[in-house]
Write a structure and sequence with these properties.
alpha/beta; 4-stranded parallel beta sheet; Rossmann fold; 43% helix
Length: 152
């Protein structure tokens, strides 16, 4: 069984790729790397083709999490069928994801997995990638716990 997760944010350069690489690293450390597939995408076309933001790269590097050069891509309607979890970072992402896919059942806000209703802090506005990383660790850890139970 392979579980597929798509992390989504506004531009796919800060929060969602940070979660993509963080989650993949966490899954591999738990021995689940071959059972979990992870990607990320954007709800807008603002940054399509751009690599991950330098701030996200810096925070991942400081925490020893590997990443690779990538290009931002847009969420498309078929992604709803391709992925088991579509995970947005904030309320605006959730609205846009539902509009783009025409569905809602598999769409979640990341911190919901930690029992919280608040958004993942957006470093594009806060300029604080450490806070965003902390939010990502919390949400990704709880999501990984849920998925590892399903896989066992």
């Amino acid at each position: 069984m392979m579980i597929k997760i798509l992390f989504v944010c506004h531009g796919n350069i800060c929060r969602s790729p940070l979660c993509e690489f963080l989650f993949r690293h966490m899954a591999e450390k738990m021995g689940l790397g071959d059972k979990i597939y992870v990607e990320s995408a954007a709800t807008t076309y603002d940054e399509i083709g751009s690599d991950m933001h330098r701030g996200s790269k810096d925070v991942l590097t400081r925490h020893g999490i590997p990443f690779r050069k990538r290009k931002a891509r847009h969420l498309e309607k078929p992604d709803y069928d391709r992925f088991d979890y579509l995970v947005g970072m904030d309320d605006e992402n959730i609205r846009d994801m539902s509009r783009i896919t025409g569905a809602r059942d598999k769409i979640h806000k990341l911190l919901e997995f930690a029992g919280m209703s608040r958004d993942v802090r957006d470093p594009w506005y806060t300029h604080n990638f450490d806070e965003t990383y902390d939010d990502a660790v919390l949400g990704c850890s709880c999501l990984l716990d849920e998925i590892s139970e399903k896989l066992s």
